[in-house]
Design goal:
globular; Sodium/glucose cotransporter; mainly alpha; 1% strand; 547 residues; 2 domains
Length: 547
Amino acid sequence: MLLEPLDLAVFIGYCLLIVGMGIFVSREKKGHVKNSSDYFLASKALPWWAVGASLIASNISAEQFIGMSGSGFALGLAISTYEWMAAATLLVVAIFFLPVYIKKGIYTMPGFLLDRYDTRVRTTMAVFWLLLYVFVNLTSVLYLGALSLNTILDIPLTYGIIGLAVFAMVYSIYGGLKAVAWTDVVQVFFLIAGGLATTYIALQMVGGGDVWEGISLLRKEVPNHFSMILSKGEMMIPDGKGGTYDAYLDLPGLSVLIGGMWIVNLSYWGFNQYITQRALAAKSLDEAQKGMIFAGFLKILMPLIVVIPGIAALVIVNNGMDSSFISSMQDPMTGLVKSDRAYPTLLQLLPVGLKGLAFAALTAAIVSSLASMANSTSTIFTMDIYNKYFGKNSTETQQVRVGRITAVVAFIIAAFVAPALGQLDQAFQFIQEYTGFISPGVFAIFFFGVFWKKTTSNAALVGAGLSIPLSVVLKFAFPALPFIDRMGIVFLILAILMISISLIEGKGKDHPNSIEINRDLFRTSTGFKVGAFLISGIIAALYIIFW
């Protein structure tokens, strides 16, 4: 399928706008040489709306548009728990963790670990994060983005991977976080507008031209896809190999509300470099917190954009509404209907003009996340590895140069690895599970580091070192254990070990690098409190309605 001239014009206009804006905001004032603060933290000058927009643009990518729509197709609205619980998590991070980070004046999450613990903990986690960003995050986004190009435009997977990597590099590597954050403001507009257009057309198709009828038919045709809290055996979903497995393994009942899902979300939104880097670049703590509120409201909206279309695609397939649609949903190699092909296939239904906008939205989601991940990879490598071991006396200019080279190398490695993900049915779940090998250790180290003064460096090192081995052992020893529950168990084991080691080693004394916590540190503005109350109320209402 080729884009019509109008669609092509809309898409090319979007590409030129992003590249042009990225270059424009990256320009250096006469006599000013870009330093590490400019490149890695956007000169610490982002307003709240830029922080919030950049948080969402960095977060929402192919793994949501393609992966979460695929999970919507397979297991329904329950996958929205990642979005709605994320909105609640943003409030926790804004109140309890951001004030500590900004008070410390850090550049990176490993930098915080150096300040709280020691070099060993910093370096260990820096290496873990670099491996995660390159081999899981960058790789999966490149693969899913290329998959969408293949489904929509029949572009070979390899060419799609290379094209997306080059596009993201063109506007982001020179300008650093400033280019990424300010273009994200534009990316979010395309992302939301194009995403809502796709949802509207999908519901229209299901409802025979009537959107409201489409919504009604979704709940009537697949009622089990509108259950937020799944129980064992309630839903069997495709495994990508022609068989099925229990959806409870992906979303284990109440654990999404009171269990391991909190570890997933706090690790991602509170201790993840390419997310927290936006807040660290804010003008002030108040601006950063307001940005978190803005992002929270957008997260509540996201299931309408990325999950509902997947459910609509399921109804279209089940009812045989469109034979060409069903054909596009099938994997060309196996002939099986592939969940992750739902969203790209829906884009083919859009009318001329809107198709270009929706394609631009999908591309915006992909390249903004790629740029963010690459920028954070370069930040961690430069500030926590290069400056420590290779360039102790490096100049600001050298640090910026190393950051740019690191981003290019990260893209090249991810591009080589990305095609290997082609055998998956739900790439979103792959990302969540393998990120979850590290998440329990990350959560334990930061949680105890901030809120328990007795936590020692050796205890943190044990938490960092055992997170992956314990996760692997439990995965193979108890294959029927949902990975979200596994994260909770690993965290509890690490917590017991860290508490025991700290008490034995420190003999009940506070660690010299412990953080002074007082009530004033967690004070928030009235505007933040109002926003937090509204977000909490909306989330509670959604879970009551769709329980």
